[in-house]
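User: My advisor asked me to double-check a structure prediction for RmlD-like substrate binding domain-containing protein before group meeting. I don't want to rely on an old file, so could you generate it fresh from this sequence?
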Amino acid sequence: MSAKKVLVVGGTGYLGQHLLQGFSEIQATTPFALAFTYNSFPPQPLLLAFPTSFAFHVDLKTGLGFDSISQQFGQPDVVVNCAALSVPRACENDPDAAISINVPSSLVNWLSSFAQSDNTLVIHISTDQVYKGVKSFYKEEDEALPVNVYGKSKVAAEQFISEKWSNFAILRSSIIFGPQTVSSVPKSLPIQWIDGVLSKGDKVEFFYDEYRCPVYVKDVVAIIRTLIDKWLSEGKKMQLLLNVGGPDRVSRVQMAEAVAQIRGYDSSLIKPVSASSPGCSN
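Assistant: Sure, here is a fresh prediction for RmlD-like substrate binding domain-containing protein from the sequence you gave:
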């Protein structure tokens, strides 16, 4: 029996790299054929860490590069779409780019080209920023009312997938945290960023009135693997929408205080401010 094929779109990002790591750790008992996409160039440390994986350059705006995957890797049994323009400020500055990257039209169009296209499960990573943020502990059935371009682009992505694809799981993830990746990522990581700014000994502002439920990256990987195992073992198409968060509701101030306590930094460096304060963006 041939190994099942898993394609990680956005494999050079934070979650993407941890997914590749998670699959590599179980290759001895549950072998998968792995492939991942990259946007500009494949990081050498990643290629060395996962030498049996296929790496493909893909432009998500145009779809250029997907044909190479068809020819060299074939139709995947599972696609995990981690790719996104996820920095809210960058999305605000270029809404067109946010839509063209975050709505996976080129990916879905490519998958539709296969004769048995519904044999592929699409797991799409969305965000808790699809919600308005006026209450705590949102449920999946709550209305999506995003307040920024990033959230709006992710809602558009969810709608596109649910309308155009019949076999999917959409994960609305909160802030993802955890250890550093094999290859560095351009986007600043929340805990590493807090650690870096506090280590300099300067006072830093943190929101006391914006709350999230940070989720450990390996827990997200475990959820994705569970969904994949269910699809591959049962073969039943799914149409799932799931909120993915950690057990604790914390503010940015509380995150910073936790880092300061563990690392031995002076907690007086943490200056609580309101998220509505002029010029604040942490």
